[in-house]
Amino acid sequence: MFLLSILLLVVLLSGCADKDQSGTSGTAEGEAAQGDAAHKGEGEDVQGAVSGTGEEENPGASVVFEGKDMEGNVISSDIFAQSRLTMINVWATYCNPCLREMPELAQLPDEYDAADFQLIGIISDLMEGTDGNQMEEAEALIEQTGADYPHLLLNLSVYEALLTDVTAVPTTFFLDGEGNVLDTVVGAMDKESWKEKIDGLLEEL
Q1: Alpha-carbon torsion 170, 94, 190, 105, what sign?
Q2: What residues pair up with 88 in beta bridges, in sequence order?
Q3: CA distances from 21 to 9, 46, 113 (A)
Q4: Cα–chain center distance at 187
Q5: CA distance 70 to 121
Q6: Phi then psi dihedrals of residue 180, to 5 deg
Q7: What's the Cα-to-Cα distance from 109 to each of 71, 85, 101, 118, 133, rounded to whole Å?
Q8: Residues 168, 141, 124, 3: what is their CA dihedral angle, to the nearest 10 degrees?
Q9: Comparing C-alpha atoms, which of 198, 42, 162 is closest to residue 90?
Q10: What is the pLDDT of residues 46-82, one digit of tens each?
Q11: What was the pLDDT predicted at 46?
């Protein structure tokens, strides 16, 4: 059943979300943009589209998971307690909008106190236990983009906790220190737009 779900996930995530920055930040009126990765991947600026808030999609439910990062370190939902706000960016190795925004995503943790903000990636097309060329490709992409924050590999726990409703990448979740989803963004955004989103959420906590 898990393998079937993962195969379905790969099919669903075969499109990258990409949109001009005209979505309404932090409201249910923002639009989710989906497009073909090959079509969207060339010659377009990466901007953002914002979906409805996480509270509307999954009210009152905290996210619980346990997985491993690229180095084999165990990372669980206990990590949420380390910061007031955690940003989880779901991306894929084939997704050009994902890769184009990652250099600016990598700059975000340096602009906040670790007690206030942290960033984690989830590689949606790389299963835990994968080795060989796929792992090397992901490692090379992370190095090229400077995205040196932790990146989780996909397993059943991570999938069921966060990815069951994800239909396009990048998709980004914001969670509080107790693992409650505060907001969800579908699509890539530039650094300043992410900072505006982060600052607004921190003010509300």
Answers
A1: positive
A2: 120, 173
A3: 26, 9, 27
A4: 10
A5: 10
A6: -90, 135
A7: 20, 11, 14, 6, 29
A8: 130
A9: 162
A10: 333 333 333 344 445 699 999 999 999 999 999 999 9
A11: 34
Rounded distance, CA 116 to CA 195, Å?
13
pTM (2 d.p.) = 0.78
Residues in the chain: 205
* pLDDT, mean of residues 173-199: 97
Q: With helix as H, strand as E and coil as C, how does 88-155 read?
A: EEEECCCCHHHHHHHHHHCCHHHHCCCCCEEEEEEEEEEECCCCCHHHHHHHHHHHHHCCCCCEEEEC
C-alpha span between 51 and 12 (Å, rounded): 17
Q: Which two tokens stand for residue 85?
A: 């706000």
**Phi, psi (deg, nearest 5) at residue 96:** -65, -40
What residue ranges define each of the domains in the chain, with the CATH number in brackets? 2-204 (3.40.30.10)
The one-character DSSP state at 161 is: I
CB atoms within 10 A of CB 82: 11
